Amino acid sequence: MSKITKNQHFVPQFLLKNFMSSNEVVNIYDSTRGKLRPPTSVNRVLAENYFYDKDNSVEHFLRDKVEGPASLVIKQFSPKHEEQAVSLNKKSKIDVLRFLTVQLNRTPRAFNDSLENIDKFFDVLLKEIGGLNNFEESVINSVKFKLNDPKDILRMQTVEAALNWPLIDDLEWHFIINNTHTDFIISDHPVVHYNWYLRDSTKIDYTAIINRGVQIFLPISPIVTLCLYDNKVYKLGKKDCSYTEVNNESDIDILNDLQFRSRNSFIVFGDTAQSEYVSNKCQLIPQNSMFNKFSESTPPVEAGIGKLKSTQMQWREQFTINKWISFCKIKNKLRRKQPLDNYVRRPDIVQEHRCFIDKMRDRRQRTLTMQLNGAKTVG
Length: 379
Hints:
The protein has 10 helices and 17 strands.
């Protein structure tokens, strides 16, 4: 019987090790408490006891199917790597894409966002039901929806996110090399996406990763950041070159600001000389401020005999950045006109993926129902 892993990382150690100092420790700033922690081993940071589960089913899934394969690819782009180079073929790219989509969904911030969305949905639902039945407002407000095990949501979205890689496999890869005196830092929610092209959009779902103009960033080390971008919208760096060397401090500042805005609480960095920079940034930039969240519902209306219908919407708007990285340009043919009505990059792929996910969920539900019925029969 294998040993149960109690201390479970939501940002993997193989990535954090790239940010270690020469003493093989990292510095971590806790912005919730406004405190710089003493230099710490990576096995003790960005982790919680039994964060995913107590039987290690999700922990082992992440280790074997997500982190393990991706680490073999990502490590070779870190200056500290000593592993044999892995060919950047289709499979290795998929391994990284899968890691990115899972990492977007496995952190405390992603978990809290999901719980907040569920709370908002049921708060509105309960108020509408209470109002239709003439319940007193105090009674309506006293009723709260509660999950038996909220971590089921985290487990589901973490595992299911491994299926989402086809949604971003059309994006171009680009490596950003930092030649400045300011290091790249990494947060506790390190995969960040932003849409500079649609930054002025008024459409409700313009921040989705399936849309035109999305860019996805992951700091790999203090001097390397991986960027995936929509090459039908942007030009990055020099033509036919998969990397850009950056000497402009303001570009590094913009990229680091994405991490500061995306953080739930913690910022990790290697060089203690960066401590004041990190502390000052955390005081200026609120945590979890990459997106502003909104919700709205329509009043119930008749939808047939004895039926009422109401629509509830939840959406988010990205923080408005006034200046973008200097080596990224919107292509001239798109810059001269308003964003297209059809925002989705590949509608056919998105629709096919949604059908696939629905089938998988339906199959899982049928399996659970059969297991439950079997348990009842045995009992």
